[in-house]
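Reopening this ticket.

The earlier resolution said the output was attached, but the attachment link was broken on my side. Pasting everything inline this time so it's all in one place.
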Amino acid sequence: MKPREQFLDAAAALMGEAGSGNASGDGKREPQRFRTIWISDIHLGTTGCQAERLLEFLRATESETLYLVGDIIDGWQLRRRWYWDQSHNNVVQTVLKKAKKGTNVVFVPGNHDEVVRQFIDLDFGGIKIRDELVHVTADGRRMLVLHGDRFDGVIACAKWLAYVGDSLYTMILKFNQWFNSWRARAGLPYWSLSQYLKSKVKNAVNYISSFEDALADEARKRGLDGVICGHIHKPEIRDIGGVTYCNDGDWVESLSALVEDADGVLRLVTWQEIMQNRKAARVKPVPEMALTA
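Inline output:
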């Protein structure tokens, strides 16, 4: 069977399994609520995917709308070698369960899951598949939502180079996974090697800056207030010439998401922050002892 058919068969099987796995989180504690959540670059189907941490995040949060902003499933890696852990099933099941319970789930495919682009404007299992769209925040700002890969010169002009870079990146992520396992045993917090390397390499910094400027310029041309994207695995919110540029990050390195509060404020959150908030919510204050005479 060809990789594309394997991919589609697996996706169909997962749709059928919605609600049948062990993806139900514990309902004992109230989740943190947002108006909107954007996540991208999960890369299900790779060993670098932080699926267990993403599951904790999804179970600890709720939103009216959940945007999946591309590279949710890594078709590039699955074509090379089939890998699909149970935790990856659980992520899909959890998202489908949210859609079934009333969350507006929108999937905007990226370059790694570009096979899904043949289903643009269709709905599957309560999930809307869209190429791009405009999100209106609670305070009235109009934000372009798209993955962003078509503004990447490497993807657009030299796809073979992107594949080579992807293989090298996968090797770095494997080392990063081993390194953070060691840090966890030593009681140290999560740290991203690849993010650190990117911040130190001049060409990478210039590439990221050019990508961000290109996305902001596209929103400006359309008369929009901002843009929300993924693709480059660098969480960011900043003003670029009067346009609000937002990147929700990823779930192989930064473990981050973009969220919108009830009043329309956009901010970045991380898995660490959400888990710390959840842990703090478990701690009940000790009632003061009544003073006796």
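Reporter confirms the inline version is readable. The radius of gyration is 20 Å. Confidence is low (pLDDT under 50) at residues 15-27, 154-162, 201-205, 288-293.
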